[in-house]
Amino acid sequence: MAKHAGISPEEAADRLAIRELIEAYAHCADRRDAKGQMSLFTPDTHFVIYMNARDPTPSREIHSREELAEIFADLKRYTATMHFLGQTSILTLANERGTAETYCMPHHYSSGRTQSLMIAALRYTDTIVKVDGAWLFAERKLYVDWLEQRELP
Fold first, then answer.
1. Alpha helix positions (H), the chain
2. I need a labelling partner for 99 at 20 to 30 A (CA). Which of 41, 74, 88, 126 fits?
3. CATH for 117
4. From CA 83, how far away is CA 119, in angstroms rounded?
5. Count of the separate structural domains present in the chain
């Protein structure tokens, strides 16, 4: 466990803002606010998806904020989603740049003829940057550790 010395009010504010950035991503996803979600990324962002966390080859790579629209629109296929965020570890933070890792368990509910629930165990590793006073994702890597799909009664 890391030993923490006193931190400055500026660092405390940055750490809080980074956590709020991560929470805003989940909030926008659950409300299908793709534009809001995209605004959390730098214009030249790098978003990498690993559908199998053990495979070093990405399933998909995105290289700009605009390309994220298709990824975020895909959530519309679900009736509802809820992203439960676990721990976020801010690993590095200096010179308006940082890295973090967040655990997340999104629940994706589908209704129709049958009802189903898909639960995923995800990890995000992020590179974040402070631009004009706001923290943004410069790179976000999504790792899927496992998926569970169940039909509901």
1. 9-30, 34-38, 68-73
2. 74
3. 3.10.450.50
4. 10
5. 1
Cβ-based neighbours of 88, under 8 Å, separated by 6 or more: 18, 19, 22, 100, 101, 102, 103
- Residue 107 tokens, joined: 């629940």
On whether the pTM is more than 0.85, the answer is yes
Cα-to-chain-centroid distance, residue 77: 19
49, 55, 57, 63: CA torsion to nearest 10:
10
The model's pLDDT over 56-115, given as tens digits with 9 standing for 90+, comes to 999 999 999 999 999 999 999 999 999 999 999 999 999 999 999 999 999 999 998 899
CA distance 64 to 148: 30
pLDDT digits (tens, 9 = 90+) for 34-49: 999 999 999 999 999 9
Strand partners, 94: 97
Domain, as residue range, for 130 = 9-152
